[in-house]
Amino acid sequence: MMMNILNVLCSKFNSNNFESEVFETAHAAALRVIELSKGKTVGFGNSMTINSLNLVALLKPEVKQLFIHLPGKAGKEERDALTADLFLTSANAVSIDGHIVNIDGTGNRVAATCFGPGRVIYLIGKNKITENLPAALVRAKETAVNLAKHYNRKTPCVKTGKCEECQSPGCVCAVTTIHRRKPNGLNISVFLINEELGL
Fold first, then answer.
1. Are the beta carbons of 143 and 105 closer than 8 angstroms?
2. Among residues 29, 196, 25, 22, which one has the least CA distance to residue 126?
3. pLDDT value at position 182?
4. pLDDT-derived band at 19, boundaries 50, 70, 90
5. pLDDT tens-digit map of 39-58
6. For the ranges 33-37, 136-140, 165-169, which has the lowest average pLDDT?
7. For the chain, give me the number of helices (H) and strands (E)?
8. Beta strands in the chain (DSSP E)
9. Sign of torsion, CA 39 116 20 145?
10. In a 3-state reduction of DSSP, which class is residue 69?
11. Which terminus of the chain is less hemmed in, N or C, by CB atoms within 10 Å?
12. Residue 39, SS3?
């Protein structure tokens, strides 16, 4: 049943000009990423999905250089990642009608999905799928709350458990992006995975 949903979503992303593939397992998706990364420079958006695939360790012997974003940082490494040959990230939510939603505190992760790297690959577990765009936006905000808790931020949402639209210095939701179609001139792939990955 879930594979049917993933295949429908894959077709929708392809019709929106993304290159989309479906994977039964996270391991299979990781092998595909390794294949596409060999000999290249690779940037990482901060992502629990990426971390769960152990891609940093898997790619180190295969690639020219890795640029790894650390939460809350906006230095040279993060800027270098924006112009890497390949940028790996995930999404906070995707809607069944083909929207990709991300909320970001620094902005580097979402910036890379809009312009810069030679190629962007989204790795998205089945738990990120929602029934429509409003539900995807709700899920993205809920994910931001969970991230704030995970990183021990001193934000109002950590206390209340819901987004407070705060102006806190520790805010993890400064920027929201919605991709409804692949931006012109960019090479973006969406890898849909039949496993629950990340928040």
1. no
2. 196
3. 96
4. very high
5. 999 999 888 999 999 999 99
6. 165-169
7. 8, 10
8. 19-23, 41-44, 65-68, 86-89, 93-95, 100-104, 119-125, 129-130, 175-179, 188-193
9. positive
10. coil
11. N
12. coil
How far apart, in Å, are the Cα atoms of 84 and each of 26, 64, 88, 98, 117? Answer: 23, 10, 10, 26, 5
The region that residue 101 occupies, defined by phi over 0 for left and psi between -120 and 50 for alpha, beta otherwise, is beta
Decide the pairing of beta strands 119-125 and 86-89.
parallel
CATH code of the domain containing 65: 3.40.50.10420
3-state secondary structure of 68: strand
107: left (phi over 0), alpha (psi -120 to 50) or beta: left
**Residue 135's beta-bridge partner residues?**
none
Report if residue 199 sits inside a domain: no
Distance, in Å, from the CA atom of 155 to the CA atom of 169, rounded to the nearest integer, reads 8
Q: What's the domain count of the chain? A: 1
Residue 142 is assigned to a structural domain of this protein = yes
**φ/ψ of residue 35, rounded to 5:** -60, -40
Let me know how long the chain is: 199
Q: For residue 119, what are the CA distances in angstroms to 9, 25, 30, 70, 83?
A: 21, 22, 16, 21, 9
Q: Give residue 35's domain range.
A: 2-193
In a domain, 198, yes or no: no
98 assigned to some structural domain: yes
